[in-house]
Amino acid sequence: MSHLPDIDALKEEISSFPVDSKENLEAFRLKYLSRKGRITELLAGIGKAAPEDRARLGKELNILKNLAVLRFDEASASLETSTGKKRAAHDDPTLTPPPLLNGSSHPLSQTMEEIKTIFYRLGFTIADGPELEDDFHNFTALNFPPEHPARDMQDTFFIRKEEDHPEKDLVLRTHTSPVQIRLMKNGKPPFRAIMPGRVYRNESITAKSYCLFHQVEGLYVDKKVSLADLKHTLITFARHLFGKQLKYRIRPSFFPFTEPSLEMDIWWETGNKPGQWMEILGAGMVHPNVLKAVDIDPEEWSGFAFGMGVERITMSRYEIDDIRLLYDNDIRFLTQFP
Ligand code: DAH
């Protein structure tokens, strides 16, 4: 019979070996766990034990080894946290902590919130609609003729295009105006709401244009709504957003869904650049064909609508000269808008 190691005695030894310092821990490792350590040596010697003892011996030695590894790991972890290198100079609790980077809302969200607040005070509610639209809501109900260039692949992202059945087309909405249609179809006049949201255009990406941007649409339908009401609403809005000193102008324009149509420009001077007129929105009196498309009698009801670009307004307010900055999520840019 070969000589069997006294496992119990070894267990006792491993449990009581001092591991309270780096040096002791290293001695422990060398003695039991290293390549020439006791346990390694015993494991290597299993083959020399009597065949009937081998299985039991292997099992017991493995338990022993696990015990030693556990003791080693626990001791080294506790040595690291109490005295170890993790407590470097920058963990000194008496030092001033490094500044934390506070999150802040995106400049686009800030502008959007201000626009919403102004219209909320003017009595407008907020509505929204889907970004994936059908041909009816995005174009047809808004009085776009079949050959209108906006219906071209070059301007619109088509998700589904049926050459012979344009009414089945699905697009990423090119403006927020289709939400007007949804609002009017799903309810009864009067309506007074703004409709903020994301829109998409198939444009090449430059400092001035991006494939997606944000608009805020507005709609007011009631009895005897007039162009004077529209002008008053737009001017009040612009003065709230840009300040009382604001210089603006209102020009005639054209949109299929309004008649008459207009555009509003504001005079913008920044830094040392010469001032210039900048268009901020399109608007007009809701076209009778649009009211008819949603079963509202244009003899009884009238309304105005407007749509503004949130990126443009944000860029002018914060003097941002490249629209792509608004979409890069570069922390150096974003931290400038606390
Ligand atoms: N939908 C237009 C665009 O994307 C903006 C617009 C103009 C909206 C006039 C309106 C409006 O509601 O009346 O360019």
Descriptive overview:
38% of the residues lie in helices and 21% in strands. It is α+β, with helices and mostly antiparallel strands. It folds into two domains: 3-91; 107-334, BirA Bifunctional Protein, domain 2 (2-Layer Sandwich), CATH 3.30.930. Helix 1 packs parallel to helix 4 (51-82) and helix 3 packs antiparallel against helix 4. 27% of the residues are buried. The model has no long low-confidence stretch (mean pLDDT 92). 3,4-dihydroxyphenylalanine binds at residues 175, 177, 217, 255, 258, 282-284, 305-307.
Write the layout of secondary structure elements.
Layout: H1 7-16, H2 22-33, H3 38-44, H4 51-82, H5 107-121, E1 125-126, E2 132-134, H6 135-138, E3 158-160, E4 170-172, H7 177-186, E5 191-200, E6 212-222, H8 227-242, E7 248-255, E8 258-268, E9 276-286, H9 288-293, E10 302-309, H10 310-318, H11 325-328, H12 331-334
Parallel strand pairs: 1-5
Antiparallel strand pairs: 2-4, 3-4, 5-6, 6-10, 7-8, 8-9, 9-10
This protein binds 3,4-dihydroxyphenylalanine.
